[in-house]
Amino acid sequence: MNRKELNPDASPQAAYGARLRSLREARGWTQEELGTRTDYSSVHISAVETGRKPPTLRFSRSADRAFGLTGSADSFEREYRQIRHGNLLEGFPEYVKHEGRAAEIRLYEIGIIPGLLQTPEYARVLADSAVRRGTITPEQAEERVSFLAQRQAALEHPRHPTMLVVMDESCIRRQVGGPNVMRAQLDRLMQFAELPNTVLQIAPYGMGERRTFDLPMNLLTMPDLSVIAYAESQMRGHLERETAAVLPLLTAYHQLQAEALPQAASVAMIKEA
């Protein structure tokens, strides 16, 4: 049998197919056996695994039932929705998988409230604005808002991850959606700051050149204490696992926290805003 080597880093669809093959083979199933369990032909299974055919919602739900993943953070339906989300940057689908398992999440954001802290109304305004600009379709906007809600819900498990968030002052000064939407969003931030597993800080404009990052940065500490970094520009994202590359970013984040306002002063600035 000719076995095509898969490159999961080639695209989100390729990653989906590679994971499907990996889980199938881990259970010792042939493509025919998985096809029987999902009501698809072996030819269809092969086409999805090799990326020749895109996964569908129906296929993803069938695969979840076969593998016992329905409703889990690792479900194929979740991965399918990530692919459908529209304009997903390289590395982001893989980052989200790790995000749901992280013991500690460190975020730094510029210009907009971090997604995990956004209210549905704030997220909706951003998605609708992208539709008006023609960068995504209305269907992709719906997927974007739904996907964000799923990411937020995935963190609401019994062992909540510790979340350390530093936001540039521009995040709270830039009005999104008008006064009512923005007021509710700022209230949400103050509620977040009161949680026992969170720290919220503002990096004020006055930091000037002492601000250590010029782009958003996400750092995940996993249960095994390894650290994963994810950063993105307007055009692409990058997931980094190599310790030699991640440790300087972790140091820069600590320096950023030291220079940012303490949480009490940050909350006072949010109240003023």
From TrEMBL:
CDD domains to which the protein is assigned, alphabetical: HTH_XRE
Domain HTH cro/C1-type: residue ranges: 20-76
Leader peptide range in chain numbering: none
Protein name as it appears in the record: Helix-turn-helix domain-containing protein
InterPro entries referenced in this protein's UniProt entry, alphabetically: Cro/C1-type_HTH, DUF5753, Lambda_DNA-bd_dom_sf
Species of origin: Streptomyces achromogenes
Superkingdom of the source species: Bacteria
Pfam families reported for this sequence: DUF5753, HTH_31
Listed transmembrane segments: none
SMART domains: HTH_XRE (SM00530)
